[in-house]
Design a protein that fits this description.
Blueprint lengths: L4 H21 L5 H33 L4 H22 L8 H47 L9 H12 L1
Length: about 170
């Protein structure tokens, strides 16, 4: 398994997209299936945004100052995704806003992943090179082992509170 940070993040993106497709293809009346898929989406995104916010973004921000604005925008996109995940995590699939909120999450995160993969990642790869990306990726794997899996986890709540109180 590669420890290249970009490869690891793209693998996460692939899994999230797969879950999105499953949700979009699920029978609207299959509430248990839809609830399970959203739970898995929330978990995947909670872990993913955590390791990007805690490891990847600070590392790139320090090493590639030219990407400062891109990183700040990414933090804000994660904040929106985190809020939607926290709301979805406590909603029932028969709530009238469940599908709408999930659709907004899918659209928002889909846009974010496209920007990262098509614009941001190539710039990061050019600026950092293979060795640094492997070091960052190894650190991401360490942090992933203890990353929160649910939005109600104290470190996830701290992240949301920090954003609100700034």
């Amino acid at each position: 398994m590669s420890t290249d940070a970009i490869v690891l993040l793209k693998e996460d993106h692939k899994e999230v997209r797969r879950l999105f497709r499953e949700f979009e293809g699920a029978d609207r009346h299959a509430t248990e299936v839809r609830a399970d898929l959203v739970s898995r989406i929330v978990e995947a995104l909670t872990v993913h945004t955590y390791i990007e916010n805690e490891v990847m973004y600070p590392a790139v921000r320090e090493r590639v100052p030219a990407l400062e604005q891109d990183i700040l925008e990414s933090y804000e996109e994660h904040h929106v995704a985190d809020l939607l995940c926290a709301e979805l995590d406590v909603m029932a699939p028969d709530d009238e806003r469940f599908d709408a909120k999930t659709t907004v999450l899918i659209e928002t995160v889909g846009h974010h992943m496209e920007e990262e993969e098509n614009d941001w990642f190539p710039k990061v790869r050019d600026a950092l090179g293979r060795k640094e990306l492997q070091e960052i990726g190894a650190h991401m794997l360490e942090v992933r082992a203890t990353a929160p899996h649910r939005p109600e986890h104290p470190s996830s709540l701290r992240k949301a509170a920090d954003a609100l109180l700034r």
